[in-house]
Each structure stands twice: as structure tokens, then as C-alpha cells.
Amino acid sequence: MPRKCGLCNQSILDDAFPRFKRLDPQRYVLRFLQNGCGLPGCPGNQLGAWAIPADPSVKYTRPDRNKLVALPRKSNWEAYFLRNGVENESLPDNVTLVCCRCRTQLFDDTEPRWTRESTPRYVLRRPNCKTCNKKNINWSPQNTSIPWVDSSKLSRKWASLLKQPAFDPEDVVKNPDWYFPTAEAQKADHQ
After folding, report:
1. Residues 125-184: pLDDT tens digits?
2. Which of 29, 77, 128, 151 gives 19 a disulfide partner, CB atoms 3.0 to 4.6 angstroms apart?
3. In 3D, which of 110, 18, 112 has the Cα closest to residue 61?
């Protein structure tokens, strides 16, 4: 596993025997470097550092007992509610978000997630705002023509569907618009 120092971001020796979380095999278990990486310019000599994967797409966790026994955090609904691969070809590859609190911080989502609906909605991310210094839910797409939905609403929808005895998750993939009614359909139901 190619690695780098968590403090100075310099490449270090590969992990010849990488460890992965048993309950989430995609998640690499970090190793602690007690005296830093030892390379010139690394401030870790007094602090210590974590050896993190060089590839930013590799997910990782610290070797903490509570984190190692915790179940994966990926939501079950993602496999059914979100588009993947070929389904995303006609959708934007990059969505720029703006913090609604300070209106100055921008975040580029280079891996946007989209719902399976016939008119797909962007699934909102919640990055940290460097201006407000808070992780908040006050983000929205800069392009106001992009329809979006918050992931917490999808989680609640999934939880309510699981309570229904006749619910079949595979049916969401086949008929997503049944589970994501349009605004017009919702108005018609309430009249």
C-alpha cells in the first residue's frame, strides 16, 4: 500500500502488510509513526504522525478499538436510491456548492451523487466551511437550476419504506418515480 506522512504529505515506505477493517474491508487501518516519518522538513519528530494512504480515494480508519468494531457507515439506501456508472453520463461531472451562511466559501463536488428519478436530483454533500469554521447543512448548488435533495431526507424515506411489510428494495431500481413523486403528483394527492 503506497503511503505518505499525514503531517508533511511526503511519500514514505509502502506498507508491505496492509491491514484492513474486518467489518469494512475497503477501509485501510492506519499505522502510527511515533517520531514522525523521519524525512527532512517533517514536524513530526516531537509530535508523531499517521501514515496515511497516498491515494486519496482509499478510505482509512485509526486503529481504535471502537472504530474497528463499528459497522460500515455507508447507508443502505445508496445502493437503491442513487444512480451509478452509465446512468450518470448525461449529468454534470462537477457541482459547485456555496455556503448559505457566509455566501463566500465554494466547494467543488467532483463526484456528485444523483437520485434515480426520471428527473434526477443532486444529493447534497456537507463539507466543512473554512470561512464559517463549521460543518453545517447550509450548502446549496451555486447553479440554482440544479434540483437537489438532502441525504437526511433520503435516510428518513428509506427508514419509512423499510417499515412497510410489502416493500421490496429492488422495486426502487425498477420504478424509482413511484418512490420519488414529482411536485405535481404530490399536489394531486393532496387535493
Report:
1. 888 777 776 666 678 899 999 999 888 888 888 888 878 877 788 888 888 888 775 555
2. 29
3. 18
